[in-house]
Write a structure and sequence with these properties.
It is globular, with a radius of gyration of 19 Å. With 386 residues, the chain is an alpha/beta fold. It has a 6-stranded mixed β-sheet with strand order 4-5-13-10-11-12, sandwiched between helices. Strands 8-7-6-9 form a 4-stranded parallel β-sheet, with helices on both faces. A 3-stranded antiparallel β-sheet has the order 2-1-3, with no helix packed on it. It has 13 helices and 13 strands. Helix 8 links the parallel strand 10 (228-232) and strand 11 (261-267). The structure holds pyridoxal-5'-phosphate (PLP) and zinc ion. Zinc ion (ZN) binds at residues 8, 10-11, 13, 24, 26-27, 29.
């Protein structure tokens, strides 16, 4: 394996990869895995990727986990990139359909890599606060790894997510509050319970799994990145991971310097990044009274806020907030025009595309990628009641 060390994304302090780590020991910000790309490129060549397995472990050299250690895998990654001709109209629109991952969401990517590493480094009990999908993914990979999963979810998490976690053998606790309250409960109890905290960006390897979204997208676009990417942003791990992948691929000589404009899509009832971006802030204040049917977007405070805002600005991208009613309406439009039953978070991006198009921030003929991060099947309660 070619990860040499972990580096703080804020202060740069180095940490060892070879012991279980959460946040930077100096400043409490997220740690990133640093890959020795000069060594990785000796065996990882983009020309020969086609001969490798379909799962995200095809990019093994840029992922953590020593080469002689078996990954904890359920076949995650390798999802289709589908043309959306009818919905896209005059836009060259494509959907990266992440609902085909194990446990039906993109959270499988991060958890496959993070659980593999947690197991390798000796963790036994894993804990996570979850809007629903991360919990399901942790439950599945922990079961596969023979580890315990302790999942804390808001009480109003979709029923499908709760049942899924229980059926996968996890210990589930429902909390009267938001995902931030779930995280606080884990922080309070983890030392006594001997839990390893798997909160997104509070351990270094979920973002490594998520970065394969960027590698895969580039590969599927024949190493020509699109003009714009719309990403439904809660904690923002996918956005941050993709950006890291773009940096790595540029260093590997696989792509040009030009980056897509990155757009963070949030719900009108919980839009901390939208608010901070528009106000020119470097970090995002906690969003009061957070509410939306898109549980993955119900994240009032993200630890990676400064990283997300930086990426949006550096890429010349932006933000868009979407109402719940719009999500439901557009989900049905996408379903009937493109044949995909999208999650509300994915639907939010299609609604955002309409608004960005109307605002002239995306123009005719541009190649645009939307991430459908999960399946609508987990949100039947919402779709049924409309
Ligand atoms: C379906 C779905 N989309 C988007 C998100 C937000 O993901 P991220 O934390 O990478 O911003 C989540 C997170 O729970 C989710 O479940
Ligand atoms: Zn630091």
């Amino acid at each position: 394996m070619f990860v040499t060390h972990l580096e703080c994304s804020a202060c740069g302090r180095q940490h060892e990869w070879s012991r279980l780590q959460n946040l930077c020991l100096s400043c409490g910000k997220p740690l990133f895995a640093i890959v020795d790309l000069d060594r990785a490129r000796r065996t990882l060549r983009h020309e020969t990727l086609g001969t490798r397995e379909k799962s995200l472990w095809r990019y093994r050299e840029v992922l953590p986990l020593p080469g002689n250690v078996e990954s904890v895998s359920l076949g995650e990654g390798g999802t289709p990139l589908l043309r959306a001709e009818k919905f896209g109209k005059d836009i060259d629109l494509w959907i990266k359909d992440e609902s085909l991952n194990p446990t039906q969401s993109f959270k499988a990517r991060g958890m496959s890599v993070a659980v593999s590493m947690a197991k390798h480094l000796g963790a036994i009990k894993l804990a996570v606060p979850s809007a629903g999908n991360a919990g399901g993914a942790l439950a599945a990979y922990a079961a596969r790894a023979g580890l315990e999963a302790h999942i804390f979810m808001p009480r109003d998490t979709p029923q499908a997510n709760v049942v899924e976690c229980r059926e996968l053998g996890a210990h589930v606790t429902l909390i009267d509050g938001l995902i931030t309250d779930c995280g606080a409960e884990i922080a309070r109890r983890k030392a006594n319970e001997d839990w390893f905290d798997m909160s997104t960006l509070k351990e270094p390897y979920r973002v490594e799994g998520k970065k394969t979204l960027g590698y895969e997208l580039a590969e599927q676009c024949d190493w020509q990145l699109p003009d714009a990417i719309l990403y439904p942003t809660g904690g923002g791990t996918g956005l941050i991971g993709m950006w890291k992948a773009f940096d790595e691929m540029q260093a590997l000589g696989w792509i040009e310097k030009k980056r897509p404009r990155m757009f963070a899509v949030q719900a009108s009832g919980c839009a901390p990044i939208v608010r901070a971006f528009d106000a020119g802030e470097k970090i995002a204040a906690e969003y009061p009274n957070a509410h939306t049917i898109a549980s993955g977007l119900r994240v009032p405070k993200a630890i990676g806020d400064f990283l997300i805002l930086n990426i949006l600005r550096q890429s010349n991208g932006g933000v868009m907030a979407v109402d719940d009613e719009q999500m439901i309406r557009v989900a049905r439009e996408v379903g009937s025009s493109e044949g995909l039953f999208v999650c509300p978070e994915g639907a939010a991006c299609f609604a955002a595309l309409e608004s960005l198009r109307a605002a002239g921030k995306i123009v005719s003929g541009e190649r645009v990628i939307i991430f459908n991060t999960g399946s609508g099947i987990k949100d039947l309660d919402w779709y049924q009641n409309q």
